[in-house]
Structures are given as C-alpha cells and as structure tokens.
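Encode chain A's predicted structure.
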Amino acid sequence: MAYNNLSVLLVEDTKSCIDLYNVVVESISLNNIDFASNQAEAVALLQGKQYQVLLCDTMHETQGAYGPRIVEKARELGQNPFVVALSSLEEHVREWEGVPYDLFTLKNYLYDEQTLADILKLAEEKLKPS
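Encoded structure for chain A:
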C-alpha cells in the first residue's frame, strides 16, 4: 500500500537510524516523506510545508535539539500533525509531558515495515474528516 496522500516529516539525529528508516520507508512505498536530523532543519521544513504526520525522536537539549520543542514549534506554525514521539528508551516518555502527542513508541519498532504501516493507517484514520 502506498501512503502518497500523507505528508510525513521524520526527525532523527542518529545517522544509522535514518538509514534503517529509509529502507523501511522504501519497502512500504512512502514517497512523501522528508527527513530532518536536527531542530533547525525540522523547523525550516515545517515553515515551508504542511505535514500530516510528524515522527519525532526525543533527542536531548545537550545535542542541540529537543523533540518536544519541535512539536511545539509545529503547533505555533499552525500545524496539527499526528505526532509520534520516538525514543530508544521507554523512560524518555517523561520528556514529552505537557506536549500533546498521539503515540509514543520505541524507535526500534519503526524498523519493522508492518509497525510503520500500522502507525500510518492509524494516522490516516485520525486525520479523516468527521
């Protein structure tokens, strides 16, 4: 199934993760996806395009980026994407307190084609007009 109707922004700062995501994205024919590796890139993309889905790594402020802040910036720009908060550790869910997100998942689950496909289907359902 192709997900050409969904515009997706994936924010991830780890190169090896991006490489794995690219393989999965290709295998499910997700063509309308942009990647950002830091907060500045993510904000620049958000300023130039509307996204329906935002897959965002938690990251940490010490690395010059912070996932929850990227989501807040998307909202400030008038965007209301389906937000998937990502992290390599479950306890990082605390970093997202106070920031609305739709789903929190561990990054390694997205390396699976079916899991990413299921998340995109969930996003499509939520984004359907009532």
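The first helix runs from residue 15 to 27.
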